[in-house]
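Pair request: fold both.
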Amino acid sequence: MAVPAALAETAAPVRPAVLAEAAAPGRAALRRLADETGAATAEYVVATMAAVGFAGLLIVILRSDEVRGILTDLVRRALSIG
C-alpha cells in the first residue's frame, strides 16, 4: 500500500530500537523490570523509616516510670562507687 505524499513528508522515521521493542515486547518488559534506577534511594528510605520507628520505640520505653527508675538507680550506683 502506498503512503500518500502529504503523509510521507510529515511522518517521522521509525527508529530501530522502537522496531526491536515492538518485535519483542517481552524483552522490553524484562528490561524495565531489571532496571535498578532509584533502588538505592528506596533502600535509604526503608532504612531511615526503620531508624525512625526504632527511635520512637526507644522514646516510649525510656519514658516509662519503671525504666526511668532503673536508669536513675544505675547512675546513682555508678556515681557512688568513686
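--- second member of the pair ---
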Amino acid sequence: TARQLLEAYHFAAKTERMMKVKRRQFSMPVQPEKSDKGKIITVFGCGGNRDKGKRVKMGEIA
C-alpha cells in the first residue's frame, strides 16, 4: 500500500525536520507482507535562479 504526501518547504532546516518526522512515521509498515518498509521517495525542486546555495543542502537532506 503506497502512501502519498505533498509538502513544500523553502528552508533547509524545515525540510530536515520534516524528513526526520516522515522517516520515523513511515518506518513501520501498514501491511508487513506487502511492504517496502522505510522506503521514501522524495522529489524536490529549487525554483529558478533564486538562492542557488540552497540546492546542495536540500539534496543532502533528501
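Observation on the second member. The chain is about 35% helix and 0% strand.
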